[in-house]
Amino acid sequence: MIPLFQASHRDHRWWEAWARWMRADLAHPSDFLRRLALGWAGGTIALGVIGLVCYKLGLDAVAAESIFLIAIVLISLVGSFTMSIGLCIVAVLYIDFFFIKPTLTFDIQYKQDIPALLTFSIASLAITGLVRHVRMLGETQIEQARLLDLTHDTVIVRDMDGVILFWNFGAEEMYGWRKREAIGKIIHTLLKTRFPVSLDDATDTLLRTGRWEGELIHTRCDGTELVIASRWSLQRNGNGRALATLETGNDVTARKQAEQALRRSQATYLAEAQRLSRTGSFGWNVWSGEVVWSEQTFRIFEFDPHVVPTLELVLQRVHPEDVERFRNTIGDASTHKQDFDFEFRLVLPDGAIKYLHVVAHVMKDEPERLHYAGAVMDVTEARQAEQQLHHAQSELARVTRVTTLGELSASIAHEVGQPLAAIVTSGEACLRWLERQPPEPDEVRAGVMRMVGEGRRATEIVRRIRTLARKDTGQKVPLGLNDVVNDVISLTQREVLSHQVPLRVRLAPLLPPVLGDRVQLQQVLINLVMNGIQAMDGVTGWARELSIETGLTPDGNVRLTVRDCGTGIDPHHAERLFDAFFSTKPHGMGMGLSICRSIIDSHGGKIKVFNNEAHGATFQCVLPPLAKEAA
Ligand code: ADP
């Protein structure tokens, strides 16, 4: 039997009060003795009365012994152990006095009465001891039950059919049903239990391991739902048969609500931060194909939040030119179980373009079930700003080119004027040859051929100038750097001559082509040539010369060098030379070198400057050859 059940069924109040009174307080011996004397005197009188009545009724010794035994059992039930033993001895004396011959004396006439008296003594003492043992057991059970009532946790015992056998004060407080209302009811019906797993699974675990714990939802008698952290322990008898389940539980409703509120507020902050940073998050289970998006990701892709996100859905919006790259990048990454990080464009239903940057990290904790966690950033504004900047830069470059053309106007006029003058001269000669008698057609043909040649030369010069003034510069194409140099020489030759600067050109034969924008590279060279000429303007103390050279660097790059014998670079200015708007010239814009550097950078090359040993400065541009670029 399980002690707890017994304790719960009985109403022990009078019993407890009497037992408490009878249990002498050993800390106060006088109190103990007083109670012992009182009980003993009362018992002695009661037993004396019983003896006298039995004597008067003429009962024999055996009948009287039975009655005395009953009296001793009753006294043992309510009295202390010490007093009960004392009264056993008193009972033996009474039996001897009233019923053992000669009666009304304590003498014993027949020896055979002695065993009978001894038997009574032993029986009464044994009963007293037994009653004491049972009483102590009962008191322990009461104590245990009282302790279980002290805890705030619920303590419930139910049998294997779920019938409630014990229901502590904590359970009364928690659920609102009194003991008498709950005991005998089926627990999960009474509390409308909702389980995190099925009841069968929980019972299975309980029977296998002897324990189960989990969070249950119970309903109070007023209908309120509570989240209870519940722990079950199985009680078995000596044969191992399951007898009952002890359920203890505590209310975690407030904690759960606080956790939920925290989770909700964290989710709100996260969603707001994602909205502000235009960054959505996603999860992609490659194994199952399942895709999970945050609110912001739906917003970025401009899909309804109720749509189930899939990779195919994303592909519907990917820019047609980016679809293949998108598929390849994601396909390669998932095949090799690698992270991915790339940019692609979306075309939205209204035709708008969005630039997205996606980064994803492969979760390697479950190698069989590959999945990614990632972020997708809307970088449209940044890309648009970059495009605008690029546009502004090329516009500025064009303006400076046109400005340079203005500075070169004398040279250009001379360049165009020369073939025109030659055409006029040849035309006049042709007329003269035609007027001769007889006319000289061969001379005329030669003259016309010269005119055509000069006309072509003039057209070519005009074409170059128009190209330089054009708004959009052409695409990068394979071109020889020597050709670029020749183009620029023809445009600047006159300028060089008018400043009386000897020009030395040394072009390396068999120079590998570079991938370049002809106009932009011409602009670089024109800037360097014009700066060189200007740097030598006031120089009189030493020989002046401008040299343009092409060649190969030891590591196979193509090199363009412009060397002057001017004033050289002031070391204080060296750091800022390539900065925009840095100029030491009274009417300088300070954009020339800055544009040169951005052009050379965009060609994958480098531009540097150093002072010559004797006089002047050298600007050197190094560009990768086409073969290297392609590799
Ligand atoms: P700008 O010619 O309008 O001043 P640049 O960017 O072309 O703008 O040149 C910036 C400055 O670099 C010039 O003002 C000048 O001080 C210096 N510089 C450029 N080229 C040379 C050179 N060959 N020799 C000496 N100084 C130079």
UniProtKB/TrEMBL annotation:
Residues 411-627 form the Histidine kinase domain. Residues 140-185 form the PAS domain. Gene3D superfamilies: 1.10.287.130, 2.10.70.100, Backbone structure of the membrane domain of e. Coli histidine kinase receptor kdpd, Histidine kinase-like ATPase, C-terminal domain, PAS domain. The keyword Transmembrane applies. It comes from the Bacteria. One of its GO terms (molecular function) is ATP binding. Pfam families: DUF4118, HATPase_c, HisKA, PAS_3, PAS_4. Keywords: ATP-binding, Kinase, Membrane, Nucleotide-binding, Phosphoprotein, Transferase, Transmembrane, Transmembrane helix, Two-component regulatory system. It is a multi-pass membrane protein. GO terms for cellular component: membrane. It catalyses: ATP + protein L-histidine = ADP + protein N-phospho-L-histidine. InterPro entries: HATPase_C_sf, HATPase_dom, His_kinase_dom, HisK_dim/P_dom, HisK_dim/P_sf, KdpD_sf, KdpD_TM, PAC. Its EC number is 2.7.13.3. Residues 210-264, 340-391 form the PAC domain. The chain crosses the membrane at residues 37-55, 67-94. It is found in: Membrane. NCBIfam families: sensory_box. This is histidine kinase. The lineage of its organism: Bacteria, Pseudomonadati, Pseudomonadota, Betaproteobacteria, Burkholderiales. The gene is sasA_17.
